[in-house]
Amino acid sequence: MNGLFVTIEGPDGAGKTSVLNELYPRLQLNAKRAIVRTREPGGVRISEKIREIILDPNYEEMDERTEALLYAAARRQHLVEVVLPALSQGKIVICDRFVDSSMAYQGAGRRIGMEGIASINDFATEKTTPDFTLYLDVDSDTGLHRIQQNRQFQPDRLEIEGLEFHQRVRHAYLKLAEENPLRIHKVDARMSLQDVVDASYSAIVEAYPTYFEE
Ligand code: TMP
């Protein structure tokens, strides 16, 4: 496989979607390879169905390990149908969330623990690891405030969790970034959208100059 696997991570309210909406066209314009944008959970039929189940706030009874397994199942299907074929064709894959999300949300947020989450995800992904991860960091107060301000729709089952849940998620992300300094690049997502996009773009292009025009 000589493609490039880039993931984007962050707590709720980090502005991932807005950043990607500007970052992706810029990457696309300058990529020397075919480039694909996709997201988790979802991206393919089966995984989008699983996403509906996981995020539906009506399923109050969902057990946290069921939740973790559903994310891993959605991940597996998406990996096999989208990510691995694209990488094996030498493409650049820009994926909105991957295993780090499960480590942060289920491992820390739901308090299942990192070992269990790592092990089901090793099974699901056969240890596929991103080449590069952009982590958009935002403190939980700002993140939750943004969700409340921007929401036109009902918040999903994860977003309705309280401040402490989101703080555990953020701290886990910070720890993952500290433990994986070569793979995970942290960007301060409290900056203006344009600054976050610029910093994100430079980080990717500087890390993988051969994949992009100067
Ligand atoms: P999104 O808002 O980025 O589309 O993600 C949907 C929600 O799913 C978000 O609250 C984060 C959560 N999530 C997990 O809890 N674990 C995971 O493994 C993934 C991929 C997402």
Textual characterization of the structure:
By secondary structure, this protein is α/β, with parallel strands linked by helices. The protein is built from eight helices and five strands, in the order E-H-E-H-H-E-H-H-E-H-H-E-H. It is globular. The model has no long low-confidence stretch (mean pLDDT 95). The structure holds thymidine-5'-phosphate. Thymidine-5'-phosphate (TMP) binds next to helix 4.
In helices, the fraction of residues equals: 40-55%
Proportion of strand residues: 5-15%
Determine the N-to-C terminus distance: 24 Å
Q: What are the secondary-structure elements, in order, as H or E?
A: EHEHHEHHEHHEH
Identify the strand order in the major beta sheet: 2-3-1-4-5
Summarize the biggest pleated sheet: 5 strands, parallel
